Amino acid sequence: MKRAPTRDILWLFLTTRLLLILVTYFGYILLTQEKYSGAPIAFSTFLNTWNQWDATRYIHIAQSGYQLPYDLAFFPLFSLLIAIPGHLLGDWSYLPLGMLISNAALLGSLFVIYQIAAEAGGDQVGRRSILYLCIFPTAFFFFAAYNESLFLLLSSGTLLALRRQRWWLAGLLGLLAALTRSAGIMLAAPYLYELWLARESVLASKGKMLASLLPIVLIPLGLILYSIYCWKLTGNFLTFVNVQAHWSRQTSWPWQGFIQTIFELFWHQPFGSFNQVHILLDATATVTFIILAIIGRKKLRPTYTLWLALLLLSILISSSIGQRDPFISNQRFVLEMFPAFITLAMVSITRPRLHQALLWIFPALLATLSLLFVMGKWMV
Question: Which domain holds residue 313?
């Protein structure tokens, strides 16, 4: 097991947090205040600029619980972690607590993903994987009160535990991941695959077999527990599925989103419109990560490729067909697909110009999209 470069990871984490703070400070003031104005802006105003879109739902659920059936689309663990200290500290604390948990989970994820990436391709691959993750154009969602970083920590932690054959830890982390996002249930597939790879040692004795097989039950248990909670509130075990239509999500064939995207980009949306740019961002993120999954299938451990393929499939079969942008939010969902960042790191090592281009393009887009988010633009 390679030791993580703790100091470098901390510097990367703090530097990228500082970048987002500077974008908030300079961007918000320059775009909202009158020229030559000497009026100060309260600190709480800067903080509240990050309470946008889904963050408002998680904070509301943490404060008041699930009051509307539509809120049940948002899985409970992230809001619960906010609510526990929030109820003690008071209403002022929910947003900063949400952001603190999100950022702390990102920091933990960096250590886990570095370990996975370094084992797959060495120290340089590990360092570049977490660098690209932190400067990715939509990495500002790790700074906001969103559950992306929590799910990233739990899912990557599950896969690392599987790699170490620490079955009970993998099952527990998988349970928590399933309480964070519905996609967490799919961690059962990598678990089964790792069991197959370790079948000789697993079947060596009855005790080992039970210790390896039993923990997988914990992963679906997370979803079962939430289903029971939904039933107690609404009388329906699958309310979290049924309300997806309210959030413009519906089951579709994987190719339907691509067909609609082509029509929207080249026929329905006028050139230079906001919708066209937003559709282009989501479509580019989707296609790029599909390409990285294809490239990475021969570079990564099959378990990681399987996990990446499952995450991609889940977003392709739940496209927002009723919206102008069928891949809405995919530029955020790809943040959870850490194996693709490892593949990108591997590719960039043999292509120095690609690495240099990413070091310019990613931070520039990150600053731009972060500013759009704090200004309340459509960045979900």
Answer: 252-339
